[in-house]
Amino acid sequence: MNAARELSLSDWNWAELMLHQALVGAISPNFRMVELGYESGSWNVVVTLEEDRPDDREVIEEVCDDMSCYLMDLQGQISRSAEANCSVMIVVSKEPIIVEPALERRRVFLMRRT
């Protein structure tokens, strides 16, 4: 069974909301995309950066820590599985982002090019 399917729609919505809350004021112009997934009992935040910058990496770690704290504050409102820790995966790429339907992850932020 896919680990992400053990979570309810409400769990996903709460986790996405907590990630949004953690991202407020954290997104720099270097952020291209932020996605949220759930695998092996852990929330996975996948951030695509245009350039590899230490300050952005630090901010992303803080975002993940904040999201984990926010989820812990929701005990009783979300399932035990959703009270999981958060891990980060950082992708550095200048390649065009092809937006395809993601079955395993939710796209939370996508930079708009003008």
Residue-averaged pLDDT: 90
Unreliable spans are: none
CATH T-level fold name: Alpha-Beta Plaits
- What percentage of residues falls in helices of 4 or more residues? 25-40%
User: What is the molecular shape?
Assistant: globular
State the end-to-end CA separation: 41 Å
Number of DSSP helical runs: 2
Number of strands: 4
The main sheet orders its strands as 3-2-1-4
CATH architecture: 2-Layer Sandwich
Largest sheet data = 4 strands, mixed
What radius of gyration results from the CA coordinates? 14 Å
Q: How many structural domains does the protein architecture include?
A: 1
Task: Give the H and E element order.
Answer: HEEHEE
Give the class from helix and strand content and strand pairing. Answer: alpha+beta
In the CATH scheme, the class would be Alpha Beta
Strand content: 25-35%
Tell me what you see in this structure.
- The chain has 114 residues and is an alpha+beta fold.
- The protein has one domain: Alpha-Beta Plaits, CATH 3.30.70.
- The chain has two helices and four strands; from the N terminus they run αββαββ.
- It has a four-stranded mixed beta sheet with strand order 3-2-1-4, covered by helices on one side.
- Helix 1 packs across helix 2.
- The mean pLDDT is 90.
Task: Summarize the entry for a quick read.
The protein is of the alpha+beta class and 114 residues long.
